[in-house]
Design brief:
alpha/beta; globular; ten-stranded mixed β-sheet; Peroxisomal Thiolase, Chain A, domain 1; 11 helices; three-stranded mixed β-sheet
Length: 403
């Protein structure tokens, strides 16, 4: 087991999802049990499914100073950065530490591939990208991080993490290592993914896309609903009496089992959980809330439910929030980290939106209904396609040391 780490202060955080811009919109949807999923209208030949689409992106071009980076994914990133005063918080951190001492670590599963799809659909007579979409700033897997690095005028390390659905959870782990090694004094972490044909039709080809709004852990679940989102957090070293929420621990693992199916006993997921709790210096019995990966696919939910049942006490409140936002893929880790931070901040333990009857594999930890309570410690699970796992542990800033 790894040794405990020093907690990191989460100085600011935000998320923009289909529920709306900023964490207030997400909290409102979680409080009211409102699903933001809508019938799919994306692309020239929409699949018969439901999606979590951020409204209005097509009418929100980037500011003129950033126009060279124009694409849908960067529009969503810019919209997300504008939420909850996040840009101002980053600029203040840049002033405190210096631009070269602030890292940027972003997760994405597709980056700006939607723009590349558009280019291939409009090849000219010579088989080349059209002149208005022949942009090397956009057509690269590192495009998102390069764009945000430029937009925030940062000069520190700039890192892209692309490990499917665990991408923007693993950014917290990368940032902790950069801070612990003294390479930087602050880190902006997060993730952005927008809807695109590669993802919608790719998951549909694997028979994982539901024709109805997703129902995580429901006995009659029929697959995932894909969404899009942007989320960010600012991490700094914690110091003294600090009421801000904190990153307490993280765990990472790989199943090394199958290209698309999780380990049937959840061994990789459990290893990530064990390492996260060890780094946080706590026992699973102290966890008040778990935001589950819970995609509403048959096998993933079954494996995760079994892991929860054998590791957590009955009092732990566990739900998946993908019935609200959809599965936002490379942005899922940061969106669900924000949901955990909101639970710590407000004490609201959300319901499992859209789900009606829990699968028999679920233990008492997995709930259909929301409730008000005290949340001191929250865990977020992100289990990526093919068995790439990350578990994060967050605390309220007053959590005492290892037990």
């Amino acid at each position: 087991m790894p040794p405990p780490i020093a907690p990191l202060r989460i100085s600011a955080y935000t998320a923009t999802t289909a529920a709306g811009t900023g964490k207030g919109a997400l909290l409102d949807a979680l409080r009211t049990g409102r699903s933001a999923l809508t019938p799919n209208d994306f692309g020239p030949s929409p699949l018969p499914t439901w999606i979590g689409r951020v409204a209005g992106l097509e009418a929100m071009p980037l500011p003129q100073a950033l126009a060279a980076w124009e694409c849908r994914n960067h529009r969503l990133a810019w919209l997300g950065l504008a939420g909850d005063g996040f840009i101002d918080a980053v600029l203040a951190a840049r002033e405190r530490h210096g631009a070269a001492r602030v890292a940027l670590v972003l997760g994405t599963s597709t980056s700006s591939i939607g723009a590349t799809e558009d280019a291939y659909r409009a090849l000219d007579a010579a088989g080349e990208f059209p002149a208005d979409n022949r942009n090397p700033l956009v057509h690269t897997p590192h495009s998102l991080a390069n764009f945000v690095h430029h937009a925030l005028h940062l000069a520190g390390p700039c890192v892209t993490v692309s490990t499917a659905c665990s991408s923007s959870a693993k950014v917290f782990a990368t940032a902790e290592r950069l801070l612990r090694l003294g390479l930087v004094d602050a880190a902006v972490v997060g993730g952005v993914d927008t809807l695109c044909g590669s993802v919608l039709f790719g998951f549909n080809a694997l028979q994982l896309v539901s024709p109805e709004p997703c129902r995580p852990f429901d006995a009659r679940r029929s697959g995932i609903s894909i969404g899009e989102a942007a989320g960010f957090a600012l991490l700094e070293r914690a110091g003294g009496a600090d009421a801000a929420p904190q990153l307490l621990g993280y765990g990472e693992s790989s199943d090394a089992h199958h290209m698309s199916t999780p380990h049937p006993e959840g061994l990789g997921a459990e290893r990530a959980l064990d390492d996260a709790l060890a780094r946080a210096g706590i026992d699973a019995r102290r966890v008040d809330h778990v935001n589950l990966h819970g995609t509403a696919s048959a096998k993933n939910d079954e494996v995760e439910a079994a892991l929860l049942a054998r590791r957590f006490p009955a009092r732990t409140h566990a739900v998946s929030t993908k019935g609200v936002t959809g599965h936002t893929l490379g942005a899922a880790g940061i969106v669900e980290a924000v949901a955990c931070l909101l639970a710590i901040e407000t004490g609201w333990l959300p319901a499992m939106v859209n789900s009606r009857t829990l699968d028999a594999a679920c233990g008492p930890q997995i709930r259909l209904d929301g409730e008000q309570g005290e949340v001191r410690i929250a865990v977020s699970n992100s289990f990526g396609f093919g068995g790439n796992n990350c578990v994060l542990v967050f605390g309220d800033g007053a959590v005492e040391g290892p037990t």
